[in-house]
């Protein structure tokens, strides 16, 4: 199938892109890497009248660290996340997660901004943003908004972006002493969308968590920051406590059923991931004894 006829404009600046979006409202769509937009258009799931190509805007590129904040431009490609020494040094969770996003051909074109704006609940990068407590920076015709990642994702393919706004960059806090991360996903094949996944960021001090952000993906309509993890902060972790928190996680999640997995299987896998994550972050194999979930 081919896309419906559409007009095409290559934006010359962020201001020009915003002007075009403002003039055409929800009849226009932003084009970044095109790896989700073009398939959706070819399948005629969407038929925008105008495509605003932002791919040449140097203002939206770049990875920089200043004052313990890592800023990543919206047009940063998945392959750049994988290869950047700055990302590896300051947000290794992203380096690891990016390797699970699709396949090399898609990672060479797909962008961070595109992935976040697309908001597929099975995507790796939105969950990483929630785990890393990112701020998502969005510019509209009048002003710039800063939205906490946990509030940005609203549902399946739904975000806090308006049709006349552009996602510009994300900012992540870095340089926190004692940080650790964990990433794992269950997928049928490497590169497929996850059946159930977990991106986690923690701060550890003397064998205790002082912060623990567990962001599950593919188990709800958006990335889920687990409330059950709060009970693991600041206390010694025992197998009984972990079982209790794992049960609480099961109650908290509301996974969808599809051709890949039942809701019960997704919930079970999320509990397995939580146990493995805590075990790995604390270096406590005793917590995973018997693989109970
Ligand atoms: C076969 C295949 C397998 C894939 N597997 C995975 C996977 O396992 N995990 C995964 O996470 N993704 C996967 N993807 C999707 C891929 O990661 C896309 O690159 C990503 O979802 C969208 O990025 P993009 O730059 O290509 O965005 P585009 O396709 O250009 O845009 C996607 C959407 O975001 C909007 N948009 C883009 N940029 C902006 C911006 N800066 N501001 C406002 N709106 C914007 C567009 O208007 C559009 O609605 C897969 C894609 C394919 C084709």
Largest sheet: 5 strands, antiparallel
Strand-and-helix sequence, N→C? EHEHEEEHHHHHHEEHEEEEEEEHH
For the residues shown, what is the average pLDDT?
Answer: 95
Rounded to the nearest angstrom, the radius of gyration is: 20 Å
Widest beta sheet: strand line-up: 4-5-10-6-7
How many strands appear in the DSSP assignment?
Answer: 14
Strand content: 25-35%
The general outline is globular
Structural class: alpha+beta
Distance between the termini: 45 Å
Approximate helicity band: 25-40%
Low-confidence stretches: none
Give the distinct bound molecules.
flavin-adenine dinucleotide
Report on the architecture of this protein.
The model has no long low-confidence stretch (mean pLDDT 95). This protein is an alpha+beta fold. It contains 11 helices and 14 strands. Strand 13 and strand 14 (224-225) form a beta hairpin. The protein has a 5-stranded antiparallel beta sheet. Strands 11-12-13-14 form a 4-stranded antiparallel beta sheet. The site of flavin-adenine dinucleotide has 30 residues, from strand 2, helix 2, helix 7, helix 8 and strand 10. Flavin-adenine dinucleotide (FAD) binds at residues 29-37, 39, 74, 101-102, 106, 109-111, 113-115, 117-118, 120, 123-125, 161, 166-167, 193.
């Amino acid at each position: 199938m081919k896309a419906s006829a559409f007009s095409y404009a290559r934006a010359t600046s962020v201001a020009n892109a915003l002007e075009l979006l403002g003039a055409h409202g929800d009849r226009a769509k932003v084009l970044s890497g095109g790896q989700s937009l073009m398939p959706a258009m070819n399948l005629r799931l969407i038929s925008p009248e105008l495509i605003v190509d932002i791919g040449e805007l140097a203002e939206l590129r770049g990875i920089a660290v200043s004052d313990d904040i890592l800023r990543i431009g919206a047009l940063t490609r998945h392959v750049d996340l994988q290869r950047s020494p700055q990302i590896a040094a300051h947000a290794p969770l992203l380096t690891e997660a990016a390797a699970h996003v699709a396949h090399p051909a898609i990672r060479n074109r797909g962008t961070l901004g595109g992935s976040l704006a697309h908001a597929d609940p099975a995507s790796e990068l939105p969950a990483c943003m929630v785990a890393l407590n990112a701020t998502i920076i969005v510019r509209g015709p009048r002003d710039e908004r800063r939205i906490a990642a946990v509030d940005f994702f609203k549902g399946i393919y739904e975000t806090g972006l308006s049709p006349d706004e552009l996602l510009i960059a994300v900012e992540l806090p870095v340089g926190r002493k004692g940080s650790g991360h964990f990433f794992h996903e269950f997928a049928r094949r490497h590169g497929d969308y996850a059946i159930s996944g977990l991106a986690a960021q923690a701060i550890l001090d003397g064998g205790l968590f002082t912060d623990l952000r567990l962001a599950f993906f593919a188990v709800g309509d958006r990335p889920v920051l687990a409330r059950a993890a709060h009970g693991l902060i600041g206390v010694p972790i025992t197998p009984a406590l972990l079982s209790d928190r794992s049960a609480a996680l099961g109650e908290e999640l509301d996974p969808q059923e599809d051709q890949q997995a039942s809701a019960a299987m997704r919930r079970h896998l999320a509990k397995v991931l939580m146990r493995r994550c805590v075990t790995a972050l604390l270096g406590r194999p005793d917590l995973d004894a018997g693989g109970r979930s």
